[in-house]
Amino acid sequence: MAMTQTQLLHELEPVVAGELDRHHTMAKEWFPHKYVPWSEGRDFDGVYGGEAWQDSDSKMPEAARVSLIVNLLTEDNLPSYHREIATTFGRDGAWGTWVHRWTAEEDRHGTAIRDYLTVTRAVDPVALERARMTHMETGFASEYGTMLQQLAYVSFQELATRIAHRNTGRASGDEGCERLLARIAADENLHMLFYRNLLKAAFELEPNQTMRAVTDVVTTFQMPGSSIEGFTRKAMIIAHEGIYDLRLHLDDVLMPVLRQWSVFDKTGLDAEGEQAREELSAFLAKTEATAARFVERREERRARAAAAR
Ligand SMILES: [Fe+2]
Ligand SMILES: [Fe+2]
């Protein structure tokens, strides 16, 4: 008899408690205000009668600006993510402690990035605020109905955000921005470890159900910011710059996590578990071909652009 989601939540609780302890020893306290160059700030055209933002204020390349906005708007939707995980994992016991701790850590990310961008005038603050309103009014609802699917999703998503923050920092050409985003990426990495270890434990308890959940998530994965207005165009700019693209998604997000779970070496799966793993392998092979084609085309585009200069 397969375990129900409620039984699984109960069985995994001691693992959550252990992971919480590990998290508390690894996480370092840090302060967003210490990462922002406040002396660079000046008043805007508001109640203090300063100057409105203009494009020439920003020293950042266009792709980095687009990526920073996507990352920030993604962080901004925290109330919706909180609702999702609180609904699935609950607010009691070790699960509840994690839900609140995670939320408190995530809340720093949006605060820090917004302060940094506003003080350094890196992006248009009016456009940013309007985009935040639209994005948060849309909200975020998970595609996934089960706890195992949600656990699989956040394992990949935390790692994806880590890579997106790191590479955005590098693309910004701004040392302070890179330092801040590296600090945030370190938080995302610990979040990924937490969820990845939990799902590993779920694999021990319920290998077939867990394999199904992983396959469902990998084959339909979308970034949490995909509901941002104009996301497709923004994602193309970000991918063209190599900040986040299908190649990175496959090599640096999907594969390392799947290997950690020993997905390809598991023995003793039943017919449904095997079926799920076959679907997963077929999907990964197809994605590999698409990623290789994408990189080839990007190189051609870059060569054409260089020749035209
Ligand atoms: Fe975050
Ligand atoms: Fe995170």
Layout: helices, strands, pairs:
Layout: H1 5-26, H2 62-76, H3 78-89, H4 93-119, H5 125-138, H6 147-172, H7 175-205, H8 207-218, H9 231-240, H10 246-260, H11 271-308
Helix pairs in contact: 1-4, 1-7, 2-4, 2-6, 2-9, 3-4, 4-7, 6-7, 6-8, 6-10, 7-8, 8-11
One fe (ii) ion binds at residues 106, 158, 161, 187-188, 191.
Spell out the helices and strands N to C.
Answer: HHHHHHHHHHH
**Overall mean pLDDT:** 96
| Share of helical residues | over 70%
Task: Please give the largest β-sheet.
Answer: none
Low-confidence stretches: none
Oligomer: single chain
What Rg, in angstroms, do the CA atoms define? 21 Å
Give the overall silhouette: globular
How far apart are the termini? 65 Å
Bound molecules: fe (ii) ion
Give me a quick take on this structure.
It contains 11 helices and no strands. It has helices spanning 5-26, 62-76, 78-89, 93-119, 125-138, 147-172, 175-205, 207-218, 231-240, 246-260, 271-308.
